[in-house]
Specification:
- The protein has helices at 7-18, 25-32, 36-49, 69-81, 87-96, 105-114, 120-125, 181-195, 219-226, 243-255, 264-280, 368-375, 423-439; strands spanning 141-145, 149-150, 156-164, 170-176, 200-203, 230-233, 317-320, 326-329, 332-335, 344-349, 356-360, 377-381, 387-391.
- It is an alpha+beta fold.
- It has four domains: 7-49; 69-125, no CATH class; 141-294, Nucleotidyltransferase, domain 5, CATH 3.30.420.10; 317-404, no CATH class.
- Strands 1, 2, 3, 4, 5 and 6 form a six-stranded mixed β-sheet that branches.
- The longest helix has 17 residues, at 264-280.
- It starts with 6 loop residues before the first helix and ends with a helix.
- 24% of the residues are buried.
Length: 440
């Protein structure tokens, strides 16, 4: 292996060779890659200091703009009176009492740190925001679309990004022509084939993985559920839930999206080159300046493409959802999300009360009991020809939302039958009507 030599060792070797009789200092400077001025400087120091050729302190002898000692004493004294005050509050208080020539906030913070007034452990407790991170790779993937960009050839490019929550590893940055379900499904299939299946994925409430707040289930999320991937959605109008993916979007905007590309192929080539740098070369501050590739490992769950069908018990009442999301139960029409069209759902009784039932849809990954406890909705059937939907405190039925609170169609009201008037009275009314028209 090659031995790395320090700068001090190279200086010592240069001085040793330069002090030999008949040596050419100019030629030695050229061989060591330094200027003649630097060579003679180290040669002079070698003759004065001997073998000690380390760097000297660059601190100036005088600092005319240094904060006065008396002002530092006042800052430290005020901090002692108010230990919870920071630099901004201390500066404002000193300004209010008439103190002039106050330094900046950052300088006051350095003065407090230099005098031992700051506790590093206590300062670490006060954060502007709280970070959350899954304990292992592939525990959670974040997925979103970056805002569309123009192309010189015409049209728009829609960047699709998928990020691992634990390692910040960019799993997919795809240049898509649209934001449709089929396009996203094809890109996810390629990503699953390379990295395996995650345990869970989170996304916002927009299309194609959401149908607005309260309706989080679409054909794409149902497809993910049948693959064994749990789906979650962020709170409406809270992009910070997917903060890691949004932060990567900001880096993309600053580093790779300043220049407009010709077409989708040009954008994809730029995304692939930047993704390699992002995953393997760019230090990440949240990872203690490690690169994402140092913390990521492919998922042990391979992608087989097999879709899991839910299994229901013998006591469940199974119904098949129509194309428009409707199904019938005991003569009543009920509606769920259209994402479950042509799928089988089950109804089972909950509790021991008479006439009380609840919806239940199997989750092939977590098991039926957990999903039932979290996502059931009670259906109370009364003597009236209406239905009342009462959601459980812990959640609602997936894909139902407001559309589930549907009343059964009422019976058509009979038209009122007016009594038949005599013909003489009818003729009289017609004459009165014609006379009024002529007066006008």
């Amino acid at each position: 292996m090659w031995r790395l030599r320090s700068v001090v060792e190279l200086r010592q070797e240069f001085v040793c060779l330069a002090l030999q009789e008949g040596s050419n200092v100019s030629d030695l400077c050229r061989r060591f890659g330094i200027s003649r001025k630097t060579g003679y400087k180290w040669l002079g120091r070698g003759e004065e200091e001997g073998a000690q050729l380390s760097d000297r302190s660059r601190r100036p002898d005088k600092s005319p703009k240094r904060t006065a000692a008396a002002l530092e004493v006042k800052i430290v004294s005020l901090r002692g009176s108010h230990p919870a005050w920071g630099a901004r509050k201390l500066r404002r208080r000193l300004s209010d009492v008439g103190e002039e020539g106050l330094p900046a906030h950052s300088t006051i913070t350095e003065i407090l740190r230099r005098n031992g007034c700051l506790d590093a452990a206590e300062a670490a407790k006060h954060k502007a925001f709280i970070r959350f991170e899954h304990p292992r790779p592939n525990g959670l993937w974040q997925m979103d679309f970056k805002g569309h960009v123009e192309m010189r050839a015409g049209g728009r490019c829609h960047p699709l990004t998928v990020l691992d929550d634990h390692s910040r590893y960019a799993l997919c940055i795809a240049a898509c022509a649209n934001e449709q379900t089929q396009t996203v499904q094809e890109r996810l299939t390629e990503t699953f084939q390379r990295y395996g299946l995650p345990e869970r994925m989170t996304m916002d409430n927009g299309s194609p993985w959401g149908d607005g707040p309260g309706s989080p289930y679409t054909p794409l999320t149902v497809w993910l559920m049948r693959l064994g991937v749990r789906c979650g959605h962020s709170r409406p109008y809270h992009p910070q839930t997917q903060g890691k993916d949004e932060r990567m979007h900001r880096s993309m905007q600053a580093e790779v999206m300043q220049e407009v590309r010709e077409d989708l192929e040009g954008w994809q080539a730029a995304f692939d080159a930047w993704r390699l740098v992002y995953n393997t070369q760019r230090p990440h501050q949240a990872l203690d300046y490690d690169v994402p590739a140092q913390r990521y490992q492919p998922s042990p769950r391979p992608f087989t493409g097999r879709l899991i069908e839910p299994e229901y018990g013998p006591d469940d009442i199974v119904r098949r959802v129509q194309q428009n999301g409707w199904f019938s139960f005991k003569g009543h029409a009920l509606k769920v999300s259209k994402a479950f069209a042509s799928r089988r759902i089950a109804l089972r009784r909950a509790g021991c009360r008479e006439g009380l039932a609840s919806f239940w849809i199997s989750d092939p990954l977590t098991g039926a009991s957990e999903l039932f406890a979290r996502s059931a909705a009670r259906l109370v059937i009364s003597s009236r020809p209406r239905l009342m939907i009462c959601p459980l405190p812990r959640g609602r039925l997936p894909g139902c939302g407001r559309s589930l609170a549907h009343r059964a169609p009422r019976r058509r009201r009979r038209a009122r039958v007016r009594p038949r008037l005599p013909a003489r009275r009818v003729r009289l009314q017609r004459r009165i009507f014609r006379s009024r028209r002529l007066r006008r």
